[in-house]
């Protein structure tokens, strides 16, 4: 009798435990979606525990600190209900009802289906190790410290309409588009949030819809135009090349990924299935072309060098005057990229001509200062940074790097030297203190006030409605 009772109780608790914990397949699907969404890149501090937050993201209006999203009940999101999790992810509203800043890409995640959010929730509650550690609070200057100012911003710019409603079978939702194309659109716009980096932003930091994926500055790097325009975009790439780039971060004679794209590839894109990468490529290849001026960035420059000018002269003489750029190149770069910028035949050290990075001032300078660091199944790709050795004997000053960059532009890229020491200083400061950023900054102050005004307008309207 007693035995039977104990057995029955055991059975009941087992059943309860089973009902409480979602099945392994769901958690695994959530893990894959979390990888595709690159949650870990922002929610993990340098050398910190995964998803425990604390990474400082600089924005034009100040530093925003990512939060602990492990299932810790005290410091993380352990007490979040699925509805609260869904609201944080797709509406930018956290559990206490306060608005999140759009540094959290909820504007992209907004298109995620209920099913996928359900799987992500299962993963975050049951597949992530809880970390009982608080993350630093975010302190933005007035007026941006008023989180409610995001409400009118969301009203204007947050498009919560999922690209493919969960209820609708994918192909039916957009006649004429294949299921593969729709899957690619869903991933690119949602989880993989390509447009948050590749689409330029307007006065209020909103993505400019008419310039979707037409290229934008992201910190010191420039995320280029990836529309289908043949010269300005990646219209000249095959679908297979785009898949290869997303998986490995390099295509010989065209482009390599450094900076934030290298991070996205290392943590996220390189781990996606071939089917999903192909779907993304199919979709991206159909983006409406946004034209620019000038020839394709993948076809510029040719091998060559001006190192003969250095011969027979003392090093110190060459380190000043007209041959400075060639001297710095010869001393620091030629060992890997070749005396004529040709790289190595296996492509491990890329050629500097026919190279998208040398055509962009930001990406050329950011590469020299910050180097390249990328980890995929194909191995670790590393170029040392030349900007972090302030006390080294071979320290490169802003003038040295400007001369080097101009040498590269003349020899291997556009042919015209356009880089000044100030440009190097700006990239060194971690971001483009360019007019664009300055404008954005002014825009944010004015924008903050405008947003405050909008709140008042909205409130007033409500008041009037209430009176009626
Ligand atoms: C580009 C960076 C970035 C990515 C990618 C990102 N987040 Fe965030 N997230 C943030 C930042 C920054 C905050 C804090 C924003 C604030 O304080 O307003 C945040 C806040 C949150 C919060 C609110 C937590 C709280 O209570 O404060 C949740 C939940 C969250 N993120 C979940 C996720 C999940 C799940 C993913 C992946 C699907 C993800 N985030 C991807 C930057 C990011
Ligand atoms: C976190 C920001 C970020 C995200 C997210 C991102 N990119 Fe990028 N992307 C960049 C940057 C920065 C570069 C330039 C890298 C370089 O040249 O070293 C780049 C480069 C590229 C290039 C090469 C272009 C060229 O001219 O060299 C392609 C193609 C590309 N990205 C496609 C995508 C796609 C597709 C997605 C989404 C699946 C995506 N990117 C998501 C920042 C991002
Ligand atoms: C120790 C070898 C090494 C040295 C020295 C070196 N590089 Fe590199 N460089 C690399 C590697 C490796 C890559 C990345 C290849 C890849 O991404 O697949 C790279 C990539 C680049 C790129 C393309 C980056 C991008 O975002 O697409 C540029 C431009 C570049 N290097 C310029 C330079 C310059 C200028 C110097 C001298 C200051 C230099 N390199 C010194 C190894 C080196």
Describe this structure in words.
By secondary structure, the chain is mainly alpha-helical. Among the domains are: 19-137 and 148-168, Cytochrome Bc1 Complex, Chain D, domain 2 (Orthogonal Bundle); 307-435, Orthogonal Bundle (Cytochrome Bc1 Complex, Chain D, domain 2), CATH 1.10.760.10; 439-468. It contains 21 helices and eight strands. The strands form four sheets. A two-stranded antiparallel sheet has the order 1-2. The chain has a two-stranded antiparallel ribbon with strand order 3-4. A two-stranded antiparallel sheet has the order 5-6. A hairpin with a 2-residue loop joins strand 1 (56-59) and strand 2 (62-65). Helix 19 crosses helix 20 (421-428). The structure holds heme C (3 copies). The site of one heme C (HEC) has 28 residues, from helix 10, strand 4, helix 11, helix 12 and helix 13. One heme C is lined by residues 34, 37-39, 41-43, 57, 64, 66-67, 69, 77, 88-89, 94-95, 100-101, 103-105, 109, 120, 138.
Précis, in short:
This protein has 468 residues and is mainly alpha-helical.
The average pLDDT score comes to 85
Quick one: how many beta strands? 8
Q: What would the CATH topology of the domain at 19-137 and 148-168 be?
A: Cytochrome Bc1 Complex, Chain D, domain 2
Bound chemical compounds: heme C
Report strand order across the widest sheet.
1-2
Q: Give the topology string: H per helix, E per strand.
A: HHHEEHHHHHHHEEHEEHHHHHHHEEHHH
What best-fitting shape do the alpha-carbon axes yield?
globular
Strand content range = 5-15%
Helix content: 40-55%
Q: What is the CATH architecture descriptor of the domain at 19-137 and 148-168?
A: Orthogonal Bundle
Report the biggest beta sheet as strand number plus sense, adding barrel if it closes. Answer: 2 strands, antiparallel
Q: Specify the structural class.
A: mainly alpha
Give the terminus-to-terminus CA distance. 71 Å
Task: Name the CATH class of the domain at 19-137 and 148-168.
Answer: Mainly Alpha
């Amino acid at each position: 009798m007693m035995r039977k009772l104990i057995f029955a109780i055991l059975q009941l608790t087992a059943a309860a435990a089973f009902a409480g914990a979602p099945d392994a397949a769901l958690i695994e699907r959530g893990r894959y979606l979390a990888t595709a969404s690159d949650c870990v890149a922002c929610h993990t501090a340098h050398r910190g525990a995964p998803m425990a937050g604390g990474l400082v993201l600089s924005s034009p209006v100040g530093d925003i600190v990512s939060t602990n999203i492990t299932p810790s009940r005290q410091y993380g999101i352990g007490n979040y209900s699925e509805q609260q999790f869904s609201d944080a992810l797709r509406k930018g509203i956290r559990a206490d009802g306060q608005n999140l800043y759009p540094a959290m890409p909820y504007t992209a995640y907004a298109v995620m289906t209920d099913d996928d959010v359900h799987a992500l929730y299962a993963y975050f509650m049951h597949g992530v190790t809880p970390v009982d550690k608080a993350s630093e609070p975010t302190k933005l200057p007035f007026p941006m410290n008023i989180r409610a100012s995001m409400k009118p911003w969301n009203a204007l710019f947050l498009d919560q309409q999922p690209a493919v409603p969960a209820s609708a079978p994918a192909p039916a939702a957009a006649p004429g588009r294949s299921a593969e194309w729709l899957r690619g659109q869903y991933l690119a716009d949602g989880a993989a949030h390509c447009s948050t980096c590749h689409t330029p932003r307007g006065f209020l930091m909103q993505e400019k819809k008419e310039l979707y994926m037409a290229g934008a500055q992201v910190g010191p790097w420039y995320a280029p135009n990836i529309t289908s325009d043949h010269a300005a975009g990646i219209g000249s790439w095959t679908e297979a090349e785009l898949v290869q780039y997303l998986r490995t971060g390099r295509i010989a004679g065209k482009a390599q990924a450094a900076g934030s794209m290298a991070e996205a590839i290392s943590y996220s894109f390189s781990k996606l299935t071939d089917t999903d990468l192909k779907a993304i490529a199919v979709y991206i290849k159909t983006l409406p072309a946004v034209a620019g001026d000038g020839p394709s960035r993948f076809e510029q420059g040719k091998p060559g060098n001006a190192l003969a000018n250095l011969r027979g002269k003392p090093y110190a003489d060459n380190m000043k005057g007209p041959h400075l750029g060639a001297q710095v190149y010869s001393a620091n770069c030629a060992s890997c990229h070749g005396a004529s910028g040709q790289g190595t035949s296996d492509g491990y050290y890329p050629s500097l001509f026919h190279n998208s990075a040398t055509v962009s001032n930001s990406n050329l300078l950011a590469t020299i200062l910050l180097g390249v660091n990328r980890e995929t199944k194909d191995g670790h790709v590393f170029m040392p940074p030349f900007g972090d050795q302030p006390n080294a004997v071979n320290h490169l000053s802003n003038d040295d790097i400007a001369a080097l960059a101009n040498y590269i532009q003349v020899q291997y890229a556009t042919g015209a030297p356009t880089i000044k020491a100030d440009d190097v200083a700006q990239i060194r400061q971690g971001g483009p203190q360019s007019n664009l950023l300055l404008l954005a900054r002014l825009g944010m102050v004015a924008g903050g006030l405008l947003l405050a005004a909008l709140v008042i307008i909205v409130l007033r309207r409500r008041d009037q409605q209430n009176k009626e």
